[in-house]
């Protein structure tokens, strides 16, 4: 039996061609799901455990993923009861198979409840259907998933009446007790699906739950009746039949390729993977549909252009950078900086000409750098959004800041890993301790403070809001300090901009500097190795042990060397660190958890933090994860220092 499951259905909605690659081990897949890490990072296992307390005494259909018939038989047996709650009930119909999170059978009526590790505000009018009448894009795949579940269950049991619900974290609710997020834990080496340790047995023990149920049956019915379509040329039942037949017949659907979907396709093989014999689904599609050969695949293409939408290029088969014109980019210059469109065109020109030299707006960069005051402070935060709150009065999915690293660059050129903070204590809400440690670290002088991207400012805004609602005795002092280093976001009624508002080094890169070795990426994990490969200064300095170059460190020995070469090329320093999880590169983890609730970056760190919080482990294991986190965070701020040094020594102080 090779059924179309709900996860395969969701994959097909992203792009029907993916069905051909999805279960084939020979195709590279950079989104290979690890259910343990996914459940850990999102807090999904906790939300699921709390959801079951809402519907207690359920029958758990405890079978392996591949035991389709057994799961269906156990479900059918349980459904013979007049009234019953079932966890992970299984339904199949003509080659379709689903498992539901929770069903509640009362007579002939069955509530089909999908538990989501997401949050919503029940008081908002347009959570799922927008003001213009279309499905809200961020919910579309979840609602189609639920429609697929209802469709299969209803077909399997036409005499029952199924109603579709979502059960999720409610943004308007606050925890009634301390330690809510410590009530559901995973034993060491345990399975978050089957081995959860529950420290409560009744919803009454936790007071007010932070989950709420919402009826989405009308929306789901409208999807099944084709009021809402995922693809305009395919109705709901047609989609199911098309996907099922193609999957079972192992047939490539040859679905028209789309710019954004192909740009983000997970079935791309790296050169290293191809050397190992792995195949690329991306290449399969482009060779079939556009007749591309290795010649085209080896040329730079439009999907590599930073922040580029590529309208009509697919239809016109103009996807190579050499086919892109200035009109495609629609260049709009801006005074004193590279505009986004200018940056795109610079990327295209350099790629076509195989020009790896950097492009710099030197005078503008110098004017910017002349404003900076010593000592320079480089900071990086690691954060999480925790599904279930730490303490009474907190809401689900609030921002939690558990770690920072801080480097200083002094006027005499000396560099210190000045301070660091990490909280690895289960059940302790860290934000206010974090804020005090941050004040102690960077509050003693008026030196310029650097962040990379906007995340740190977002977190400081969140902590200010949390402090305003708190009873902390030093809250006014902390708020005053935090406002001096930040700017108000739109959630705050009273605007502010601190006199030491953090300088965004990522914005500095975007405005004044382009390095072709980044291939358009502005991630620090791309800018750092590109800078190291380009900079003669960095190569000379960081090829020496850190003890020889007056660089202090909290986490690396004096003989540690940051710059290592492989075939004349600098190895990305992030790849030289030990992985935080077995079999997972840190950069792979970023890809895998980045689409979860409120997660933009730092996927590896927040997953590790979740493990520290919710998994029972030995002190040695806890210590190893903590050490790993400290190393990664230290490299993040050292990377910022290196980028600054590259600007200073290879650009500003270098004669024209």
Automatic annotation (TrEMBL):
<dbReference type="Pfam" id="PF11074">
    <property type="entry name" value="DUF2779"/>
</dbReference>
<dbReference type="InterPro" id="IPR021301">
    <property type="entry name" value="DUF2779"/>
</dbReference>
<feature type="domain" description="DUF2779">
    <location>
        <begin position="377"/>
        <end position="523"/>
    </location>
</feature>
<protein>
    <recommendedName>
        <fullName>DUF2779 domain-containing protein</fullName>
    </recommendedName>
</protein>
